[in-house]
Write a structure and sequence with these properties.
The protein is mainly alpha-helical. The chain is about 45% helix and about 5% strand. The protein has helices at about 5-15, 20-25, 30-35, 45-55, 60-65, 85, 90-100, 110-120, 140-155; strands spanning about 160-165, 170-175. It has a two-stranded antiparallel sheet. It starts with a helix and ends with a strand.
């Protein structure tokens, strides 16, 4: 599985952006991006959410957890400028809506023309191609994953408090850390 840093690097390369352009699009400071790319720090949930919002053609599960394909079905890096035509921006609102609502965000309403363009996309899959159906994601699934991720990030790091060494004569010694 790719690390957060590797996925961010892949996005930058795929979108053919400089680090400065990527920082501007995702509302990151260039120094924060530099720290992430040098693995000095890990991206926060807010940073990953900003990336998903800046590039709605990206698969949120891939950005956040490295699961699935990089791009949502029916999109690729060349369609990123045409998000409203295919309704990808609105799909991101559907997936991340509850998370955004907690921050005072109200998702945009879909127009009937956008809804039709989503449902009436031509099928470009050839007859000889095997297609594995992607499991459908619900808002509840994304919320559950995000809740678990945040809970893991908020746990304090474990620390060694005691070490015991056992000897072959049946004795042992204990060593304790100073508090």
């Amino acid at each position: 599985m790719q690390s957060d840093k590797e996925r961010i690097e892949q996005i930058i390369q795929s979108k053919k952006l400089t680090n400065i352009e990527f920082s501007n699009k995702t509302l990151l400071s260039p120094s924060t991006l530099s720290h992430i790319l040098s693995e000095r720090t890990k991206p926060t949930l807010t940073i990953l959410r900003n990336i998903v919002e800046a590039f709605p053609d990206l698969n949120p599960m891939w950005v956040l957890l490295g699961q699935g394909d990089m791009y949502l079905a029916g999109t690729n890096s060349s369609t990123s400028g045409n998000q409203d035509e295919i309704g990808v921006d609105d799909d991101i609102d559907d997936i991340l809506g509850p998370m955004k609502n907690g921050l005072g965000y109200v998702p945009k309403a879909k127009t009937s023309s956008q809804q039709q363009s989503i449902t009436q996309q031509p099928n470009s899959i050839g007859k000889n191609q095997n297609v594995v159906p992607m499991p459908s994601l619900t808002i509840k699934d994304v919320e559950e994953v995000m809740t678990k991720t945040v809970a893991q990030l908020q746990k304090p790091a474990r620390q060694v408090t005691e070490v015991r060494i056992f000897f072959d004569d049946g004795t042992y010694e204990c060593f304790y850390t100073k508090k």
